[in-house]
Amino acid sequence: MFKPLELQPDEEKRGNYPTFLEKSVIPLHVEDDHYVKKLPESWYSSNGYGDRMLKYLREWRENSDERPFFAYLPFSAPHWPLQAPKEYIDHYRGVYDDGPEALRQKRLANLIKLGMIDASTKAHPVVTDEVEGWEEMTDQQRKLSCRAMDAFSVLSVLFKPMVPIVTGFPNRAYAGMVECLDANVGRVIDYLTEIDELDNTFIMFMSDNGAEGAAYEAYPMIKGPLMEHLGKYYDNS
Q1: Residue 36: its pLDDT value, please?
Q2: Could you give the CA distance from residue 29 to residue 213 in angstroms, rounded to a whole number?
Q3: Helix, strand or coil for residue 146?
Q4: Among 11, 73, 120, 152, which is least packed by CB within 10 angstroms?
Q5: pLDDT at residue 155 in the model
């Protein structure tokens, strides 16, 4: 049963949101039967998951295990938090500077060039009633909007919407996350090719928005402010 939410400013609020939300993106990782308490310096999830998968495959190979392997490689990217290694983000510097429609038409033309869609294909009209369109923005607003695309964390958009945002327009961090993910899938495929197992491996690539990458489901074990919040505002008797 939910009790009326009456947050105490000095106790449970910081800025415009409850402090327990700060713990919603705890980098919670488990290997075998234990939590990973400390991650290496400069560790990034997509690279870390790729490294771990390659380690498992090499162990399988070195042990001369004749049994087929099943490997599950779930990436958290490109979900929250929107962060990527600088070298990937830099690949997209300037890509979004001409606005969303110019980029959209460029991508459409490339799909036609590659023969992936019919040459007569027209892009569906974009409706952005909640924000000013690119053509209606001043030069300064366009610069600010492009700068917003460089954001490393979506928190700046959720809690401090300081600049115009073109809804649905991908940013450099998001694009960098996808490229890094792709690079790590490529590393696994390269290794399978190296050991002459690629043609003997069925690979299924699935993309899904998936569940929120938060650690709420683990709070009964790790405790913390959320449990205090639930005890104060919810009756689970």
Answers
A1: 83
A2: 11
A3: helix
A4: 120
A5: 33
**Contact residues for 198 (Cβ-Cβ < 8 A; gap 6+):** 189, 192
- The whole-number pLDDT of residue 101 equals 85
- Output the six-digit token pair for 35: 């939590």
Query: How far is C-alpha 70 from the geometric centre of its chain's CA atoms?
Result: 25
What are the angstrom distances between the C-alpha of 169 and each of 158, 159, 196?
A: 15, 18, 41
Phi-psi region of 42 (alpha: psi -120 to 50; beta: other; left: phi over 0): left
Measure the CA–CA gap between 25 and 36, rounded to whole angstroms. Answer: 15
Query: How many Cβ atoms are within 10 Å of 184's Cβ, its own excluded?
Result: 23
Helix (H, G, I), strand (E, B) or coil at 18: strand
| Whole-angstrom distance, CA of residue 53 vs CA of residue 50 | 5
User: Over the chain (237 residues), what is each successive 10-residue block's mean pLDDT?
Assistant: 39 51 63 83 91 96 91 85 81 82 90 94 80 83 71 35 35 81 96 96 82 54 62 68
Contacts of 24 (CB under 8 A, 6+ apart): 212, 214, 215, 216
Distance CA 3, CA 138 (A): 47
* Residue 201: other Cβ atoms inside 10 A: 13
Sign of CA dihedral 137, 139, 142, 148: negative
* Contact status, residue 54 vs residue 191, Cβ threshold 8 Å: yes
- 36 vs 33, 39, 48, 122, CA distance in Å? 10, 7, 13, 49
pTM of the model as a whole: 0.67
